[in-house]
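Input sequence (441 aa), recorded before submission:
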Amino acid sequence: MEIRTIRTEGLGDSTYVVAHDGLGIVVDPQRDIDRFLPVIEELDIEVRWVMETHLHNDYVSGAPDLARALGSELIIPAGAAPVYRHTPAFHREDLLSGGLTIRPIHTPGHTPEHVSYLILVDGVETAVFSGGSLLVGSAGRSDLLGMDRADTLARLQFRSINRLAALPAETRLYPTHGAGSFCTATVAGNADSTIGVEVRTNPVLTHRDEDAFAAAHLSGLAPFPDYYQHMGPANLQGRPAPDLHAPPTVEAGHLDDIDDVVVVDARSRTEFASGHIPGSIAVELRKDFGVWVGWMIPFNSPLVLVLNQNQDLDEAQRQLARIGFDRVVGVIRDLDEWASRLVGHEVVNTGEAIHMLGEGVQLLDVRAPTDWAFGTVPGSITCYTPDLADSIPETIDQDRPVLIACESGYRATIAASVLEGRGYQPVVLVGAGVPELLTRA
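Predicted structure, token format:
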């Protein structure tokens, strides 16, 4: 048996393609299914099953479309009950093909319907696809459906991860969520593991009872993106494959003709600072571009993207499509004709920022709450970047410049675009962040 891992780094997730004697299985595919087809072709397999471990909270599933495209059987946890046709996976009701057995194991806790899939080859437990249950060095978080259900789900998760831990030690563990995913309760690894390694090293398996586990599992959780609330409903209903054709170019003067449009400037933080369209939101294009757009902008708003000539429009659209943002209605590649309308803001390095602090500038620390626990600059105002979309702290003086810092300038630039759009005077620390200010202040 061969297992190929296809990572989606911006989401912190893995999709798996399994090959055994010409038979194929795909586990937890994202919506842009064309990424998986070359792997399937290379392995020269007939995909018998496309399987989902749970109703995902962090992306729109591509399983229905992939199963339809390949003529495969779509396997969904029985408790999910989506509106489209599928084969429900019931606890320990095996799926069989020759010497290959897929055994669904009900592992609720990340979500109520969650199922892990144990693979047996000639009767031997070989691998388990654990989705958002037992992860490498962690477990899937239990609060994504609301804190009113979190304690119940955490207690279910305790039983589920220990159920998986009882599998033979040599069983390979292949979780969907890993490093970089907001679906993990604590920092997880992005590689596969074995049950034996996790029993020896995974801290979530050290709790003596469900009370101790639930208390630890629900403490110190990081915020998660706002768009998550839309993913469960989307995956219950199913979403058609995204249209990734390039959108039309928007000429200067025509932007106002598009109703309710949001301009997302995906250029570098320094390019944005040098000149940008007023009111645009700065989200630099990198692996987690889609996540930050989904966190800062109302779900599935019509978008016009600003990119420089060297940036990958297809990559930007794919990341947005994975989280259900299907309305990229235009693109701007050249801002020369916009020159008379552009605005900008100041950027500074660490030394300049230290000097400004000495002069009494107000400092806005936009790192995550989990970062503040390790120290903030005395007198700074703390507000996590996504929270600025709802409200600006009243303690910020709109008539004075505000120095904004995070770790590198990425989140600070997003924050600056929000503040600037509401009449503030941002100055962004780039190439460094609050840790450097703390070291040198």
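Checked by second reader. Residues 147-165 form the longest helix (19 residues).
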